[in-house]
Amino acid sequence: MELAKYKVCPECGKHNPPNLIECKYCEADLTGVKVVDIESEIARDPNKDTTEQKKTSEAERELVRICECGEHNPPQSRKCLACGEDISDIIPTEVKKTINNPLSYELTSVDGSFTITINKPLIIVGREAELKEYLADKLYVSRQHAKFTIAADKVFVENLSQTNKTFVNNVEIPNGKPIAINDSDEIGLGGKIINDSRQDKAAYFTFKVNT
After folding, report:
1. What is the reported pLDDT for 2?
2. Are 130 and 182 in the same domain?
3. In Å, what is the CA distance from 188 to each residue of 90, 136, 143, 165, 166?
4. Inter-residue contact 103 to 211 (CB < 8 Å)
5. Range of 77's domain?
6. Which string of DSSP letters, residue by residue, matches 161-207?
7. What's residue 97's pLDDT?
8. Percent of the chain beyond pLDDT 70?
């Protein structure tokens, strides 16, 4: 059986798919890193710990960028999700994951016809991004309209559109500033509720936290 190939990041030591040129954990440059498998890695370093215990230990840790305000951000974040400060020069730090009582998050259209699970650290929604099947006819929604980010058991939404707006509970959120959202909040993409009516060309979702 052919062994899985990967690149070992020279900065954080994590395994990356062989086609990546940048570490998906700490964004280190992988362009000059050789593709290896487990046997060649052991041959290069016979003392390398490749036991199941190590794998379990790695699964309990994650890389985060820790802002001066104390917020733990995903390693790819350029701005702090809590205070908006530039954290691009902060080196990702390995911390222990919070694995008890894991949460899951969903966005459900207010008409109940479409649901998406937020199960990645970062997703972008829009007519040419996530949810494009549902948003194709929503002309008030931009191609890349809003960004949803998971950090420290919280979900943040950030407006990306220069021409259209994003609303949380019918309140417009500022561009470039991630806003924490809570269970049962309503997210409006491209429109708000006016005179108790929603705009047909905008999109509206209810945010749900599942425990």
Report:
1. 46
2. yes
3. 33, 16, 15, 8, 6
4. yes
5. 60-100
6. -SSS-EEETTEEPPBT--EEE-TT-EEEES---BTTB--TTSEEEEE
7. 63
8. 83
